[in-house]
Structures are given as C-alpha cells and as structure tokens.
Amino acid sequence: MTDLPASVRPTLRRLARRVAAGLFLEIWPRWAIGSFLLAGTAALVCRIFFSSAAPFLPWLWLAPALSIVPVIILCIRRAYRPIEIAALADSLSGGQGTLLTVLETNDPAWASTAALESLKQLPMPRLKLWSRVAPILASAVFLITALLLPQRMISGPRTTILANDIVADLKTTIEELKKQDLLTPEEEKTFEEEIERIRKDALDRVDASSWEAADAMREKVSASLSQKEDALNWAQENLARFAAAAQAGTPPSANDARELADAIKNLAQTGMLDDAPADLQKLLGSAEALAGGNFKLPSDPKALRKLSQQLAQHLDGRATRFGEIRRAGRDRGRFDPSEFGEFNFEEGPDGDGDPGAGGINRGRGDADLTWGDESLPFDRFKSVSLPPGAVRSPDDWAPVAALPGAPKEAAERTFSSTGVQFSGTAGQSAWRRTLAPRHYSAVKRYFENAESR
Amino acid sequence: MTPEPKPLLTPEAVAAAQTSITKLTHELRRVILGKEDMIDEVVAALLARGHVLLEGLPGLGKTELVKALSRLLSLEFRRIQFTPDLLPTDITGSHILQERDGRKEFTFHPGPVFTNLLLADEINRASPKTQAALLEAMQERRVTTFGETRTLPDPFFVLATQNPIELEGTYPLPEAQLDRFMVKVEIVGVEQSVLEQILVTRVHGEAPPLEPVLNLADVQQLFSAVDAVHLPRAVANYISRVVAASHPKAAGAPEAVRSFVRYGSSPRGAIAIGAIARGLALLRGKPNVGFDEVRRVAGPALAHRLVLDYAAKLEGWDGRRVIGAILEGVPEVERGLPQTLEAVK
Known about the structure:
Shape of chain A: elongated
Number of strands of chain A: 4
Distance between the termini of chain A: 133 Å
Shape of chain B: globular
Number of strands of chain B: 12
Structural class of chain B: alpha/beta
Oligomer: heterodimer
C-alpha cells in the first residue's frame, strides 16, 4: 500500500481499521454468546444441583472475558490483506478499478485522477453494532439471571448432609470396634450394610424414622457388645471360680467345668476368641470345633490350668477394651424430635398428632428396652411362635344361634375337613358359615351356659 | 507464471481513443435516438472485435444502426437478407466454372462474408445449414471451400438481427451459434419523448446523412488501445466468479440459477465480458476495467449463453433476469465486507 498516492492512504487505513473492527465483531459475538450461555448453564446447574460450587460461581464471568483471546487470534489469522482492502475500497467507491490498477501497475500517471481523488470521500461502511450485540446482551442476561438465582436448598443436598450426619457416629463406632477387634467379619459386614441402608433411606427422605433407625442400630451394636461383654464376664466369673478352686486345692466340680466349657463356647460364638494368642488357640483346639460347639475342656489338670490362665489373661485385655468403648459412647444421646423442630416430625402429612388430640400417633418406634441381668445373655431373646392374629377368612364363621330378630333360616349342617359348615338354601351364600373345630366346643359350651342361665 | 503487465495506457492515449469513439457514438446517437445504452454496447463489442446479435421487434432501428455503423467506419459493408432458401454458398461464396484463355476452370467467387462489416439480417430465417456456414467465418475469421481456406478481411464483424416474434418458419439459432456472438443486444421500444423527437426530425423516417468519422487505421488503433486496457486481478476474479455462478451445479450459484438454468456460460462468456468491458472502459475514458464495467456488460455478454430450463419460461425468467440475480448474489470482491459492516450507498 506504500506505492499508493499519499492522498489515498489515510482513507485506506481508516477502511482497514473499520474492516478489522467489523471482523472482530463478526467473530467475537459467537464466542461471547457461547461462553455466556456455557457459563450461564454451568451457573444454573450449580444453582440447582451443586450448592458447594456457589462460592466459585462469580468466577464464571471470566469465561466471556477469556473468550476474547481465541477471537483475537482468529482475527489476526483472518486479517484482510492490503490488496483486499484496496479491492473493497475500489468496490465501495463505485467499482472504477482505478485504485486496483494503480496498485498493480504502479503507474504514477493515473495516481492523481479524479477516480482516486474521490476515494478521499469514501463513505466508511457502517457497523451493524446493535444486531450483533443484542444476542450477546441476551446471553449475558441469561448468565446474570442464573447467577442471581437463589441457591436451591432442596432435600437433595441437605438430605445428603443429614444422612451422612445420621450415620457418621455409627460409622465411627464401627471403625473403633474394628480397631479394637471387637467385631467379627460377619458382624462388620452386617453392620456396614445396615448403616448403608439407613443412609440410603435417609437420602430418600429424612424423618424421625431415620434417627430412630440410627438409634436402633446403635442399640443393636450396643447389644452386640453387651452380648460379648456378658460372654466375657460369664467366662471370667467361671475362670475366677475355677481359679479359686485351684487355689483351694480342690479339683473343679463337673458343673463348674461344664459351665466353663459353655462359657468358652459362647466366647467362641461371639467372636471373642478370634484374636486369641496362638498358644491359647492351640489349647482350645480348632476354630471349627469351637464354633460348632464341640469344645471340651482338657482333662489334664495342668493343661486345664494353663488354659484358664491364658484365657483369663486374654479376657482381661478384652475387658479393658470394652471399658474404653463404653467410656467413649457414654455421651451419645437418643433422638429427641423436639430438637428438630424444623422437620415437624410430629405433625406429618399423614395426620399424625398428639395422642388424645384426635390424631393417631404411632409412638416411638424405638421405645426403651431394658437390658439387664434378668436372663442369661444367650437366652435373652427366645423366639416364641404367636398364634395367628387374624381369622382365616371373613367367611370362616357360621351362625350357631338365631337371635331374636334374625332372619329365619333353616340351617343345614354339613361336614368338611375344615369344620362344620352351616348353610342356608341354595344361592344364599351370605348365610354360609364355617365353625372351626377348635371353637366348636367353646361355642357350644357358651350357649349351654346361656341356656342354663 | 504471471505475465509481465503491459504498460498502462497514458492519459493522453486514452483521451485520444475516447475522442475517436465519442465521434462514432455521437453520430450513431444522431441516427438512433434514445438508445444510448444499446449504442454503447454495440460499439464496445465492436471495439472488442466481437460479433453482435441484435434482437428486437421490427422498426426499432436494428438495420439502421448497422447501416449507420458501416457509413461511419468507412469499412466495406455487405448485407445478407437471410431467407429459408438461402444456401451456405450464398454466404461463403462458391466456385464457378469459367472459361479463361480458352481453358475452363473453377474460379472462386467470394461470398458476401468477405467484407469488414456483415449485416446478417433476420438470421433466424435461414436454415440451420446456412446458419452454420457462418460459424467458421465468425470464430476463425476464415472460410474453407473446396479444401481451400481463405482468410476474411480484418476487421470482420457480423452484426446479425433477429425478430423475437413471427417465429413460424424460422430456425432458432443453436447454442453453438449463439455462443459465437460476443453480445446479444436486446432492442426495446423508445420512450414517448424520443418518439416525439423522431417525428419532428424525420419527415419520412430517413436517417440524417452521415460522413465517415473513422477509417480503417483509426479502427486498428482503437483495437490496440482496447487491448492495452488493464484488467485488474480482482476484477478478473469477479468475472470468473460471475461466470462460474451461472452453472447450476456451482457452489456459489444463486437460487435462480439452480432453479432455471440447465447449462451455464462457457469460458468464452468470461472472455467476452473481459473484452467488452475493456471496450466500454475505453469508451468511458478509463485505462482499466472496473467492477462497474463488468456489471454493465455481464447481461449482454452472458444472457444468450445460458441454456434455460422450461421452468424459466413458465416463471417468466429470461437470461437477463438470471444474470441480474447472479450479479446480485456474487459480491464484487471475493472476500467482501464482514457481515457486521454495511456499505453506505
């Protein structure tokens, strides 16, 4: 462009600047809109799903600013060459071709022609700014709106926090018990599964049952520990009796020996001997035999004494661990709904209300249970089969007497395998009743008494 | 390899050429009133040494224009009235058995094509065979008969006329023949004011008397000047893109081309645009072709080279309209203004 007449150069430079601005505005809006939309979408997603990202959201304003870098690189790469600027200038000035000709031929004879002189008044192309900027503003508004949205405090994140909080101390307890070797692998697996189940239930919905389940779980763990502690105490008592007999020089009675054997079996079943020293394991015999209840005390007094000593020593160590665990879990309270007023556990949508106030209250599901020395630890819970609480079927009844006012119906007696069936005439199935045999005599007795009355 | 650029015409040379051309156009405008654009197109085509096809209704001055040109240029002029029974030899000439010095021999009698300026009046009335006889003459500027090739005089122009109506008994020019014409000038009616002027100045409709304004040497000098008119690369690029866009399968073809054009222009069309634009630039007193000249001559130079679809006729599209759509769709500068910029008219 240096070969062009001096009078034309300023015009061409102005045109080059205008074209560069136009090129920038042609490239930049797409990047800006894209970055605004991307940042806005990211902000929206964070506002809805990731509350932890909220402090970082203002940094999203950097995205549109940073998008200028690739735009500048693209502008430099796509910059118009001087010959292209000259062609544009020529075209804009009416397409005379004189400027291009002078540029190509470097002929000074035509450098001061009217056609070139007219380039001084070349009207610069107008920037269509608004049409390009409007979509950017719209996308910027999207980002602003997304950033101004309140952070969504939905049950999702809070539930997660609460769920983790609910099971946190349980996990800690289990970890501690694992450290102290107070859990068998089976128990550990069971407890961990149970804790995960509680956490998942709480993730779905946090209500009183979540804490109650945690309390129940805690008590279950506590019960397991108590069972182990009871087994340990029982074994220690027996060992003490055994030791006292040994000191007195009297051989242990058969009853004491049997009870000690039972206590050792109980210890084995509760996993209290899993980490016993090798010598003690050797004296006790195979683990399978112990777990299967086939343990027998050694008949050799010397071996028996050695066993009792080593066992006592092992159990002393375990007892210390129990003491530590007890001390650590002493402050743990139980769930109290009144401490969680915001959750409104007592007046749920299902119409629960205070007892006596007309509503139905299911009461606490984790009502206090008494754990004491009323029964032996391993006999504490014996399953008892209860009779079925419901009738076999609504038809499982039969009229045994016609009360005054009842429809007159000649009942026919038939016998079936399930009992005596009384039926009315055909088609009147409503009158069919069956009396179970075990009730038959009772009903008969009742009405006999009624007649006698 | 880019050829070494020719030296640009000096302002004095351009001015001299423009003066000569202006004399010609001025006189022509005296004869043909109100047809300045048509006269410019015809003169530009002649300066480019191209053949011209004039199409228009009877009485619009087609033949008068050619006759006036012949008088003004002091060139040898012949006229052939094309009729259905015209034979090729009636155009090219034939060998006749003649007795000379007691011997009989075939002597070639040149046809009317051996002239500087040939008026082929109502060319579409001749049979295709006869029309084709002009093909070699127009393109190669020579005639071959009985195995002998004879060069036509230089310059050689064919100015053909045809009537777009009364098509019964006519033979439309085939595409190959049309392609030989550098421009097809469509002559339309005159405005009412021009008609009034004609009535006032022409008692019997006869043209005013004309004196030659250019001789053969002047014409040859003008040809040299036209050849020296500079065609900038950007303008040549524009011409090539315009011609390329006339093909329906071209990437940059406008919708009108894709819908209505079966075959686009040949490269001869691009050459024709460049040549006529050079002539027009000189006529305008410029040493170079600009985008403006290309826009001006693209219609006359390309419209007759497009083979349009039947749909075009149904939709009322002709070659000129399609070229208009191409010029609208193809930017002058290949890399135009960014979309964010708007040219101020």
